[in-house]
Amino acid sequence: MTTAAAIYQQLHAAIISLELQPGMPLQEKVLAEEFGVSRTPVREALLRLAEAGLVEIFPQSGTFVSRIPLSAIPEAVVIRKSLERTTVERAAQVAAAEDIARLDAIIARQRAHASLSDASLFYAEDEAFHEAISAIAGYPGIWTLVKTVKLQIDRARRLTLPVPGRMATVTEEHTAIRDAIAAHDVKSACEAMMRHLGAVIPDVTALRQHHPDYFA
Question: What CATH number does residue 158 fall under?
C-alpha cells in the first residue's frame, strides 16, 4: 500500500465516523505534519476523497470535509435496496446451518455493543452483518459495490445510532432478516431487508433539523 493510499484510508474512516465533521477544514501542511510525510501524498489522498464526494477543494479557500448531501440519500437508498434485495434473496435460498450461526454471532455482538452504547463497534458489526449476507449468497462483489454507493448514508447513520433505542431497533431488524433467511422464506427476507434499509430516510430528515450545519 502506498503512503497516499494509507492516508486516504485513515481520512476516509475519520470522515465516515464523523471524527472529522462536515465543514471541517483540512490543511495539507497540518496533515503532512500529523502523518509525518511530505505534502504530495496528502494532496493525492485529498484528491481521491474529493472524487468520492467526501471532501471539497476550493482553490482560493482551502479544502473542507464535505457536508452530507441530503438530496443524494434517497437515490443511494434505492440503489442499495436493489443490490441487497439480490443478496438476501439468494441467501434465503442457499443458507446452511453454519451461515445462520455466523449471523447469530454477529447479532449477539451487536446486542452486547448496544448494551454498552458503543456506537463504533456496533456500526462495525452492522457492516459485518450485511457483508455476511453477500458472502452467504455467493456475491461478495455486490457488497464491495454497495460500500461505494452508501458513503453518504453511512455518515448520516453515524448520527442516528446514538439516538436512544436506535441500536436496539437495528438489532431487531437484523434478527427479522436472519429469521427469514433461516426459514428459507425468500419473500419475508426481502421484505425485512427493504424495511430495514428504508428506515434511514425519516431519520435523516429529522437529523437535519438537529444538525443543520452537517447537511447540504
Answer: 1.20.120.530
Task: Indicate whether 87 pLDDT > 80.
Answer: yes
Distance CA 85, CA 81 (A): 6
Domain membership flag for residue 211 = no
The count of domains in the chain is: 2
| 124 and 156 belong to one structural domain | yes
> Which residue, 6, 72, 25, 37, is CA-closest to 204?
72
Structural domain boundaries enclosing 50: 3-65
Q: Please report, as a single letter, which amino acid is at residue 63.
A: T
pLDDT band at 202, cuts 50/70/90?
low
65 forms beta bridges with 55
Determine the average pLDDT of the residues in 136-156. Answer: 94
Condensed to tens digits (0 to 9), the pLDDT of residues 39-70 reads 999 999 999 999 999 999 998 889 999 999 98
Answer whether residue 140 shows pLDDT above 70.
Answer: yes
Q: Which three cell numbers stand for residue 1?
A: 500500500
CB 43 within 8 A of CB 31: no
Q: Does residue 51 contact residue 69 with C-beta atoms inside 8 Å?
A: no
Spatial contact of 66 and 18, defined as CB atoms under 8 Å apart: no
Burial of 110 (0-12, 13-18, 19+ CB in 10 A): buried
Same domain, 14 and 56: yes
Asked if pLDDT for residue 201 goes beyond 70, the answer is no
